[in-house]
TrEMBL record:
Residue spans of biased composition, Basic residues class: 1-11
Protein origin, superkingdom: Bacteria
Residue ranges annotated for the HTH dtxR-type domain, each copy included: 47-104
Places the protein is found: Cytoplasm
Its job: In the presence of manganese, represses expression of mntH and mntS. Up-regulates expression of mntP.
One GO CC term, this protein: cytoplasm
Native species: Consotaella salsifontis
Chain spans, region Disordered: 1-25
Family of the protein in this entry: Belongs to the DtxR/MntR family.
Subunit structure comment from the entry: Homodimer.
Record keywords: Activator, Cytoplasm, DNA-binding, Manganese, Repressor, Transcription, Transcription regulation
Protein name, per record: Transcriptional regulator MntR
Length: 164
């Protein structure tokens, strides 16, 4: 028989705190919608990262090999192959045996859209004082989650900000 540590007593929550919480209860429908949007952005993030990288590799080498994709993203070959299979199902890439991976028109459009978002986020972060190297790293995550309205506000801010 294992010795169990005694359970800690929970602190009592004052009644007024509970009453206040009832008044400010979140709108569960709106919250569920926000969570859904975030899950969707996470799902799209992988597709966007892969299409952006494939576009870069195509520009540099004329094609993107799964080996190069895996190396650049720091993932295993099977992981990259699985992601490329998903890109094919989504109609974003094509590939041929013993050849590389190529973006379709839809894939190229996605890659360009992601590049534009990426540039805007980096410029915004730099405009508010974030060092360039940190802005580049942070933009990798932010670019996938920011709404079009927020992105437009970032862009407007950058255009109106004084040169530093």
């Amino acid at each position: 028989m294992k010795n169990k540590a005694p359970r800690k007593k929970r602190a009592a929550v004052p009644a007024e705190a509970v009453a206040g919480a009832e008044q400010s209860a979140p709108d569960l429908g709106a919250e569920a919608h926000r969570f859904s949007q975030t899950r969707s952005a996470r799902s799209a993030e992988i597709l966007e990262d892969y299409t952006e990288l494939i576009a870069d590799l195509m520009e540099e080498h004329g094609e993107a090999r799964i080996t190069d994709i895996a190396r650049c993203l720091g993932v295993t070959h099977p992981t990259a192959a699985k992601a490329v299979a998903r890109l094919k199902r989504e109609g974003l890439v094509t590939s041929r045996p013993y050849r590389g991976v190529f973006l379709t028109e839809a894939g190229a459009a996605m890659a360009e859209r992601v590049r534009v978002r990426h540039r805007i986020v980096i410029e915004f972060l730099k405009a508010i004082g974030v060092p360039a190297e940190i802005a580049a790293v942070d933009a990798e995550g932010i670019e996938h989650y920011v709404s079009d309205a927020t992105l437009a506000a970032f862009s407007d801010f950058v255009r109106s900000a004084p040169e530093v």
